[in-house]
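Good morning C.,

I know you're traveling, so I'll keep this short. The sequence:
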Amino acid sequence: MSVVAGRYARAFADVVLSMHLDAAIASSDVETVLAATQSTPALLAVWENPGIPLDQKIKVLDGIAAITGLKPQTRNFLAVLIKQHRINVLGEVVKLFKTELNERMGFAEAAVSSARLLGQDERTKLESEISGMSGKTVKASYGTDTSLLGGAVITMGSTVYDGSVRGKLQRLKKQMEAE
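The tokens, ready to paste straight into the viewer:
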């Protein structure tokens, strides 16, 4: 991750938290614009083109803000990225911004893969256990992976907790080979 993207992500997190803005809305706003730049490469090309006057670039941003309902602070943040010729790092900024907000608000994101779809009670219990391990409130996303046979694999950042049957069988195999 670039130092520049981190600096902008922290600055936007400062704005969101100091102005008591809804972090979920701020995240959604920047993700919306990121999705627009990914689905319409010409948009990013316009904002990056030094031959296009800044006021026209900002008019494009204002049009998007009006259509999507961007909060003024988000619009202003994106305008700064455009003015400073940093809109090309928007993807990194969005990722780091979300990480920064979660860190400051005491949240941890976890990706849970299980052999079958988990029920709400199972999800609640699992999130509680993960919170106990991490010391943070967990926001989990869930998916299924039929190759697991049973159990679950939890990924938090670069840490993987493998409680799957497949993982247990692999660990047992290694133990048996070592003996």
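Safe travels,
E.
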